[in-house]
Structure formats: structure tokens, C-alpha cells
């Protein structure tokens, strides 16, 4: 037992010496250093899925959840693909889908219902939601006019496409050129 006491004292002295040496390395003021793990920065929550309605000549028509950035082809795949009698040439399979969109796959000779992807109404540019770049794609609309349209709708959205002309944003000639290409949704 008498040999054990000096061994314990030596061990305590060694631990005290190590603690003292470490405290000098990490601050030098003799105070204990507490190591706290860094908390990871909060990550941005994932974008919500896009929900689309796929109908017409598909294997499993229905409502599907797709990842943000999905395309018409992704929606068709989710619905089990097109049937043998589908007119796939009527759809732009590379077009991006948006939340709440209806994608209708027609059969040959069938008209795509209004509001569905590929319908005439769907192909028009919505002057209340289009970006300046999308507006610039219209004939006679350059960066200046596109910016004026975006500013004008900011305070008061367009109720009718004719307001492009009545608000003095486009000339009569430009309006005649674009009236079949734009809509207000």
C-alpha cells in the first residue's frame, strides 16, 4: 500500500503537468479550454415538389409529384409512358413543367384541351408573369419596352391584353403583331 501512494501521486502530477502544458498551448492564461462542436449552418429547405396532372393517351393518367426542374418527358415517364396511339409529336417533351400544370397527351387528330401543355393558350406569353427576357422574344419588344411592361404590371396587373396599347406601352403596329402571341392569366 505504501508503494501505491507514491505511484498515484506521480500519476496525478503527470496529469496536472499535461493539463498545464495544454492550457499554455491553447490560450496561455491557465484557464480551461472547452471545445464545442460547430453546429452546421442551417441548410435551405428543399424546394417543394411540382404537382402535375397527366391525362390523355398515357398508361396511367393521374396526378404526379415531380422534382423541381422536371420536363414534360419526366411527367410522361411518371405516368407510365405514352400509349401506342399517342401523338407525341404534338408535345414538346423537353419543355419545363410548372406546378399545377395539366399535361394532355393527344391521340392523332385530337385537339389538346385549352390550358393543357401544348394547347394554343398554353403557348402564349402571359404578360402578367413573363420575364423581361420572355417579353423581348416578342416582335417589336426590346429591353426598354419589356422593362416598361414589367414595371406597369407591378402596380396593376393587366386585365386584358389591349391594355398594353391603352397604357401606352406599345404602338398600335406592335400590338397588332403580338396580340395573338400574348395572354393574361
3D structure, described in words:
The chain is an alpha/beta fold and 185 residues long. It folds into 3 domains: 1-32; 50-112; 125-183, no CATH class. It is built from 7 helices and 6 strands, in the order αββαββαβααααβ. The strands form 2 sheets. The protein has a 4-stranded mixed β-sheet. A hairpin with a 5-residue loop joins strand 1 (50-56) and strand 2. It is elongated and about 105 Å long. It starts with a helix and ends with a strand.
List the topology elements:
Blueprint (H helix, E strand, L loop, with lengths): L3 H22 L24 E7 L5 E5 L5 H7 L23 E4 L10 E2 L2 H4 L1 E2 L5 H5 L6 H13 L7 H4 L5 H7 L3 E2 L2
Parallel strand pairs: 1-3, 3-4, 5-6
Antiparallel strand pairs: 1-2
Instruction: State Rg.
Output: 33 Å
SSE sequence, one letter per element: HEEHEEHEHHHHE
Q: What is the number of beta strands?
A: 6
Biggest β-sheet description: 4 strands, mixed
Spatial arrangement of strands, main beta sheet: 2-1-3-4
Q: Judging from the principal axes of the Cα atoms, what is the shape?
A: elongated
Taking the alpha carbons of the first and last residues, their distance comes to 93 Å
Percent in helix:
25-40%
Low-confidence stretches: none
How many distinct folded domains? 3
Main structural class:
alpha/beta
Amino acid at each position: 500500500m505504501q508503494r501505491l501512494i507514491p505511484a498515484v501521486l506521480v500519476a496525478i502530477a503527470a496529469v496536472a503537468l499535461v493539463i498545464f502544458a495544454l492550457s499554455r498551448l491553447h490560450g496561455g492564461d491557465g484557464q480551461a479550454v472547452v471545445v464545442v462542436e460547430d453546429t452546421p449552418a442551417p441548410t435551405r429547405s428543399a424546394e417543394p415538389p411540382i404537382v402535375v396532372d397527366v391525362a390523355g393517351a398515357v398508361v396511367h393518367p393521374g396526378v404526379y409529384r415531380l422534382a423541381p426542374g422536371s420536363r414534360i418527358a419526366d411527367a410522361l415517364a411518371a405516368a407510365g409512358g405514352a400509349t401506342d396511339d399517342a401523338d407525341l409529336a404534338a408535345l414538346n417533351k423537353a419543355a419545363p413543367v410548372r406546378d399545377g400544370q395539366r399535361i394532355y397527351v393527344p391521340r392523332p387528330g385530337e385537339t389538346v384541351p385549352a390550358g393543357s401543355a401544348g394547347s394554343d393558350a398554353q403557348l402564349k406569353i402571359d404578360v402578367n408573369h413573363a420575364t423581361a427576357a420572355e417579353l423581348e422574344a416578342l416582335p417589336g419588344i426590346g429591353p426598354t419596352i419589356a422593362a416598361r411592361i414589367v414595371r406597369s404590371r407591378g402596380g396593376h396587373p393587366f386585365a386584358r391584353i389591349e391594355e398594353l396599347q391603352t397604357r401606352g406601352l406599345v404602338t398600335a403596329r406592335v400590338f397588332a403583331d403580338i396580340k395573338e402571341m400574348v395572354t393574361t392569366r
